[in-house]
Design a protein that fits this description.
InterPro entries: SDR_fam. This protein is α/β, with parallel strands linked by helices and 253 residues long. The chain is built from eight helices and seven strands; from the N terminus they run βαβαβαβαβαβαααβ. It has one domain: NAD(P)-binding Rossmann-like Domain (Rossmann fold, 3-Layer(aba) Sandwich), CATH 3.40.50.720. The longest helix has 26 residues.
């Protein structure tokens, strides 16, 4: 396999300033793609760009609130104007509404909905004209939707499961037009997961013990590199799937 198998491709990655989004963006750039880094913090995005450019890749940064439809439209217009098109879309950004049903604030749920399934759908529709023919969409959901004990995670699971439904519909509706859409469920040591493991050490220890490989994944090597492969011609017949990148923990249905 040629290491530069995404050359002449443009990828849009949301939440690209840190964690899993950054890992995916770096891997795509290493494989030859020009990567549009989208996120709320321009400072964080510039760090990701410097890492990409240091490795010989190309990236542009666009500060955007994914909950704002107008900002998303302007961002995609800029990407197309500067790069000529879009072949890969990775929807990673997500505000996480955690808490029991009685405790979680409705504003948190609304932010989770707007930053997750609504932003995902909006970007899919904005990018659709450019993805037709050979485009790939990778949407991020979570194995939290497979938890037996959903206590404290119901709102988060709800917004993530909505993303899975939207993704499956796109795979079916747009597949004939040459657009593939898949979902990944990643476990990786992102800043959010790191904070969770520090704040809930006992739950985190139990969580890691439940992973057959007994470790949490790496953002670039375990998640990003798989996404790059999933975006390539080597995965051209993979469509409409939910793939857990979690060391074997979840049983996906």
């Amino acid at each position: 396999m040629n290491d530069r198998f995404l050359i002449n491709k443009t990828a849009v990655v949301t939440g690209a300033g840190q964690g899993v989004g950054q890992g995916i963006a770096i891997s795509l750039a290493e494989r030859g793609a020009t990567v549009a880094l989208l996120g709320r913090s321009l400072e964080k995005l510039e760090i990701s760009r410097s890492l990409i450019e240091h490795a010989g890749g190309k990236a542009i940064t666009i500060a955007v609130d994914v909950k704002n439809a107008g900002e998303l439209a302007a961002a995609i217009e800029r990407v197309v104007n500067e790069t000529g098109g879009i072949q890969i879309l990775v929807n990673n950004a997500q505000e996480v509404p955690l808490g029991t049903l009685l405790a979680v604030a409705e504003e948190k749920i609304e932010a989770g909905w707007q930053s997750g399934p609504m932003a995902t759908l909006r970007l899919m529709k904005l990018c659709y004209p450019y993805l037709r023919g050979d485009g790939v969409i990778i949407n991020l959901a979570s194995s939290v939707g497979m938890r037996w004990d959903m206590s404290g995670y119901g709102a988060y699971a709800a917004v993530k499961e909505a993303i899975r439904s939207i993704s499956r519909a796109a795979a079916c509706e747009w597949g004939a037009e040459g657009i593939r859409c898949n979902v990944i469920l990643p476990h990786a040591m992102s800043p959010g997961l790191k904070t969770w493991t520090e704040n809930r050490p006992q739950e985190a220890a139990e969580f890691i013990a439940s992973i057959p490989l007994r470790r949490i994944g790496e953002c670039k090597e375990d998640i990003g590199d798989f996404v790059s492969m999933l975006c390539s011609e080597h995965s051209r017949y993979v469509n409409g799937q939910t793939i857990a990148l979690d060391g074997g923990q979840a049983r996906v249905s």
